[in-house]
Design goal:
The protein has ten helices and 17 strands. By secondary structure, the chain is α/β, with parallel strands linked by helices. It has two domains: 223 residues, TIM Barrel (Alpha-Beta Barrel), CATH 3.20.20; 111 residues, no CATH class. Strands 2, 3, 4, 5, 6, 7, 8, 9 and 10 form a nine-stranded parallel β-sheet that branches. Strands 1, 11, 12, 13, 14, 15, 16 and 17 form an eight-stranded mixed β-sheet that branches. α1 runs parallel beside α2, α3 packs parallel to α4 and α4 packs across α5. The longest helix has 18 residues. The chain is elongated, with a radius of gyration of 23 Å. The relative contact order is 0.15. The structure holds pyridoxal-5'-phosphate.
Length: 361
């Protein structure tokens, strides 16, 4: 069935080996591997769970943690809920995540109550916002940080495991030695003030890994949470490729349903497309246009890169993607399959779409 995502488990394992070498051997960090961009795909999770250097398996969605918790635990990995728990999911958070990331004391108290009901200790990591302005207690509000820690330490069924920051995903702030040092300092102050030891000082995601290579990760950062850098080989701070990884471990394939020579410019007054955008067209005269049966319900058009030279994605709608194949090297026909490397947006949608079959190599 098409469209389909072809997942090469061996290539993903090699990518994970490369990322683990940097993170664990060179960086001395524990490693949370993040499965959300593959929608916690069962076979990918199995490979991650069996990888000897992975410490935790993390996801932002409870449904994903629910599906992966057994295999993670069987292989001795802890499960982590990365997105702050909704009040409506605290029961499942405690059930399926050994550890969750938090910034709201009311929610942490609810987690404590749920954990007490099932006689469990739930671990939490307190999120600190270093200026990216997504989740976390703002780093300048030290009083709030300390008051929150004080409250947490009163809870019988919650264990404060550490502190963490997330950068780049929202505010696009790049992790550097100076901003991550602020997290290390906050961790140190918490430890000193409360006489406790924090096991985790988590310095971010795939945008932080480049600091290890530069020998610029502050001492004291001892954990990273990594998704994109092992799935797609990307250092997401500067867009370079992580040494030892490949970018084609997952290939998206779609089938041509129409192939015709037509003008490159639509004819008539241009209004808004299906998504409310006013499209821009380049007038290249008549071109060979191929329509493939995959659309924005299944992928993100600007993050699919044709594997073959001479093929260009020129637009699409919810069910269709239009390609300019005028310069294709292959003599294309209706029914032929076109392959694409994927970037993050396309991967996320393709793995989430029930219309995209997943097959394995
Ligand atoms: C809190 C948190 N940590 C880590 C990650 C993993 O990010 P990346 O895929 O860039 O490594 C995410 C991504 O969703 C996240 O939200």
């Amino acid at each position: 069935m098409y469209p389909r995502l072809v997942i090469d488990i061996d290539k993903l394992r090699n990518n994970l080996d490369a990322v683990a070498k940097i993170t664990k051997d060179d960086g001395n960090c524990s490693m949370m591997i993040v499965t959300k961009a593959v929608c916690a795909d069962e076979k990918v999770v199995e490979m991650i769970a069996q990888h000897p250097q992975v410490d935790y398996i993390a996801d932002a969605r409870i449904l994903n943690l629910k599906s992966l918790a057994d295999v993670a635990h069987k292989n001795g990995k802890e499960t982590v809920l990365l997105r702050l728990p909704m009040m409506s999911e605290v029961e499942d958070a405690v059930k399926y995540a050994d550890l969750s990331f938090n910034s709201e004391i009311e929610v942490i108290k609810m987690l404590n109550a749920e954990a007490a009901k099932i006689n469990k200790t739930h671990k939490i990591v307190l999120m600190i916002d270093l200026g990216d302005l997504r989740e976390g207690i703002f780093f300048r509000d030290e009083d709030i940080i300390f008051n929150t820690v004080e409250e947490i330490l009163k809870l019988d069924n919650i264990q404060l495991e550490g502190v963490a920051v997330n950068l780049t995903c929202y505010g696009a702030i790049i992790p550097k030695n100076d901003n991550l040092q602020v997290l290390v300092d906050i961790a140190g102050k918490i430890e000193e003030k409360f006489g406790i030891e924090l096991k985790i000082v988590s310095g971010g995601n795939s945008s932080s890994i480049y600091l290890i290579d530069k020998k610029d990760l502050p001492a004291g950062i001892n954990n990273l949470r990594l998704g994109e850098c092992f799935l797609l080989g990307n250092d997401t701070a500067y867009g370079t490729q992580i040494e030892g990884t490949v970018k084609d471990a997952m290939i998206l394939e779609a089938q041509i349903i129409e192939l015709k020579k037509k003008p490159s410019m639509p004819i008539g007054e241009i209004g808004k497309d299906a998504f409310g955008n006013v499209p821009y067209y380049e007038d290249k005269g008549d071109i060979m246009r191929a329509i493939i049966a995959i659309g924005q319900q299944d992928t993100t058009l600007d993050s699919m890169i044709p594997v073959e030279e001479g093929i260009e994605v020129i637009g699409g709608s919810s069910d269709h993607t239009v390609l300019d194949v005028t310069n294709a090297k292959r003599d294309l026909k209706v029914g032929d399959i076109v392959s694409f490397k994927v970037e993050y947006g396309a991967l996320l949608k393709a793995t989430t779409s029930k219309y995209v079959e997943k097959v394995y190599k």
